[in-house]
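Recap from last week: sequence in, structure out.
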Amino acid sequence: MPLSEQEQRLLDEMERHLLRNDADVVSAPTGARSLSYRNIVYGTILVLAGLGALVVGVSTQLIWVGVVGFVLMLGGVILAVTPMRGAPTDSGRPTAARATTPSRTSTSFMDRMNDRWDRRQGGDR
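Predicted structure tokens:
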């Protein structure tokens, strides 16, 4: 169902307001720390192993196996949510995307998304 003219105008106004007011939050420096997918995968594996040990500990009534399982689960969660130290590596980005946007390091993610949105909508407004 298409939006009425008033709803479209209100939506455009809300979008402009959001982009104008949240630009400070988006451009705020976040530092060189970000989540590592490797840590998330290893953390998830630890949580699953800990859950398995916890189930085995409860079913066999071996308290120490359950405690080890709980500690593994706790360690896995901590590992998964701990940000990596240092600058993130550039190995995950495709080379074609790097060639098309040479100033990728100087712009934030939201700036790039806003530019893409403007291009899709038919140019800058």
